[in-house]
Amino acid sequence: MTSTVTATIEAAKAEGRAALLGYLPAGYPTVPGSIDLLKGMVDAGCDLLEIGVPYSDPVMDGPTIQKAANAALSAGFRLRDVFTVVEQVSAAGGKAVVMTYWNPVFHYGVDRFSRDLAAAGGLGMITPDLVPDQAEDWLAASEAHGLDRIFLVAPSTTEERMALTTAASSGFLYAAAVMGVTGARDAVGADAAGVVARARAHTSLPIGVGLGVRSGEQAAEVAGFADAVIVGSAFVSSAAAGVAAVRELAAELAEGVRRPLVTS
Amino acid sequence: MTEQVTSADEQEHDRHDPDGRGHFGPYGGRFLPEALIAAMDELTTVYEKARLDPDFVDEFNRLLRDYAGRPSLLTEAPRFAEHAGGARIFLKREDLNHTGSHKINNVLGQALLTKRMGKKRVIAETGAGQHGVATATACALMGLECVVYMGEVDTQRQALNVARMRLLGAEVIPVTTGSRTLKDAINEALRDWVANVDTTHYLLGTAAGGHPFPMMVRNFHKVIGQEARAQILEKAGRLPDAVAACVGGGSNAIGIFHGFIDDADVRLVGFEPGGHGIDSGEHGATLSEGTPGMLHGAKSYLLQDEDGQTIEAYSISAGLDYPGVGPEHAWLKDTGRAEYRSVTDDEAMAAFQLLSRTEGIIPAIESAHALAGALKLGQELGPDGLIVVCLSGRGDKDMDTAASYFGFTS
Ligand SMILES: Cc1ncc(COP(=O)(O)O)c(C=O)c1O
C-alpha cells in the first residue's frame, strides 16, 4: 500500500510543482488556537502538515520554535493533546504527520503512542533526534500501525548513512538544507540541492527540504530541486499575528511551490 | 610519595566498555540529530585509535603529570573522621590538580583529540564553571579557540569562574533559556555544534551524552581510581570498604569507581544532590528519583514528568544541578554494583564547613555532598570502617554561596 504522504507529494509532482508542508507546534498558542491555525494552513494551500510536540529540550530548534514550545507548555499543553489536534485537523481534511523529539514518545510507550497517533488519523512521525540505527522499537511500531517513518539527512550525512537512512524511511525523506537549528534564513543553504542529489542516488522516495524557508521566492527556489518544501519557523512567527497572517503566508508559499525555479 | 600509576594500560579496552554502539546494558547509545552522527563517528574512530597509540598515551600522561600535577595526593582526614563514627576516611585530592578539580583530566585528553582531528575551535558547557575553566585552560595551552556556554543562573553564583575563563581567553556565553542552568547550557552547546561541527569539537565535561562520550570521559578519569587504589593499599594496607563520590553528570564518580569496580567487596556509593529534600521536589537526585529516558544523546535515568518533559533540577551546587546522569551509572545502579543516595543542601553545607574547620581543606560544594555521604557511611560502618572519598574540587569558587549560606557577609 502506498502511503498517503507519498501519494500526496507524488500528486503535486504530477501537477509540475512541489508539495507544501507547513509546521506548527500543537498547543501554540493554546490547543484550540493551534487547531484553528492548522486548519487555516490547510485551507490556504498546505498539502501536508507537520504538527510539532512541544518539548522542554528542543536541541534542534532555534529561538522562534523554542519560544513557541515554551509558550505551549506554559499554557498547559499535555502530550495527549497532540492526538486531539491531529484528530480535529485530520477531520477537517488535513493530512498530518507529527514532529517530535524522542523522549516524550519513549516515555509514553513507543507502541502505544503509535497506536494512538494512527487512531487519531496521523500519518507518520518526523523524528529529529532519532536515527534509524537507534529505532528498533519505532521500526516495529510504525509497521504495526501503518505509520510513515520520516528520518532526516543532513549535509554532513555520509554515503553509508544515506543508504541506511533512506532504506529505513517511508513517506518521504527529510533533508535538512543547512547545518544548523531551525529558524528562518535569508538564503536557503547552498548545500541543500547537493544533499537532495546525493539522497536521490539511494531512494525513489520523495524528498522534502526544510530549515530556513520563509518566503514564496525561497519556496520556488527549493521547489526547483525538492519534492516538498517544508516551512516551520516562518509559520510560527506568523502564528503570533493570528489565523489571517498564517493563511496569507501559506498562500504565498503555495504560490511559490507552483513556480519551481529550474536552475540547471 | 606513591608510585606514578598512570600508564599506557589505562586506555586499554576492558570488559566494562560498552558495546560497539555505546550501550551499557539498555542504556547509552546515541539519541542525537543525524547532522551530528558523522562527527560522533569521527570522534569515536579518532579516540579508538588514540587510546591504543603509545604516542597519544604518553602525551596524555605527560600532561597529567607535568601540567595537571598528578598523581594527586591521598590525604587521611582523622579529625573529620571523628564525626563519622570513628571510621578512617581518606580524601582523594582532585582539588589539588591544576585548575582545582578533576575536570582537567578529561579536558586534557579531549583537547589532544581535538588537535588530532585538526579542529581549531572548542565549545563546552559548564555548570560550576570548573569544566569551563579547565577547558579554557587547555585551549590556552594548546592554542585553540574556546567558547563556553553557561546558564545565566550559574554565571551569577560562580562569578569567579566566569572571570577566570575570560582571563584565559575564552568567550563565555550566558544561556538565558529554560532553567538557565547546566541542562540549558548543554542544549545551547549542542545547537552551536550542529551549526559548526566541521570546525568545532564539543568538549563535553561529564560522562554523559551520546557514544563515545560516556566511555571516553570515563577512561580519561580512570586515573583517579587507579591512583587511589594503589595509594590506599599503601597507606591502609587494604582495600576500602566503600568509595564515595558526588554525582552530577557522573564523571568524577565513574573515574574513581573504575579503580575498584572489579573489587567486589568495595562498595561504590554515589551521592546525588537532595537539594531542599526529596519530598520538597526541589532536588537533582536523578538516579534515586528518576526514570529511564533520553536526554542530551543517551538513554539513562532522567528527572521527567508524566509526559516525558524534563523536570528542572535544583541544588545549591551548580555542578550537580542536572536532571540527567551518565548512562553507565544507570547500568551500575540496575546491576547493583553501585548504590546511589542523596544528600541535602544542608547536609552538604554542614560537611563543607566541617572539613574546612577540622582539616583546613575547603572543598567544592559538589564534593561536600560526597563528604556528607561519607559521614553517614562511617556511622554505618563503625570504627573498623575504611572509606575513600573523591574530593573532586576545591571550594574557592563557592565563597559567595557559602558566605550567604552561613551569613558571613557582615
Ligand atoms: C568540583 C566538581 N565536582 C563534581 C562535579 C560534578 O560533575 P561530575 O558528576 O561529572 O563529576 C563538578 C561539576 O561541575 C565539579 O565542579
TrEMBL record, chain A:
Pathway annotation from the record: Amino-acid biosynthesis; L-tryptophan biosynthesis; L-tryptophan from chorismate: step 5/5
Annotated catalysed reactions: (1S,2R)-1-C-(indol-3-yl)glycerol 3-phosphate + L-serine = D-glyceraldehyde 3-phosphate + L-tryptophan + H2O
Protein EC: 4.2.1.20
Pfam families, A to Z: Trp_syntA
GO CC terms in record: cytosol
Superkingdom per UniProt: Bacteria
Name this protein carries in UniProt: Tryptophan synthase alpha chain
Gene: trpA
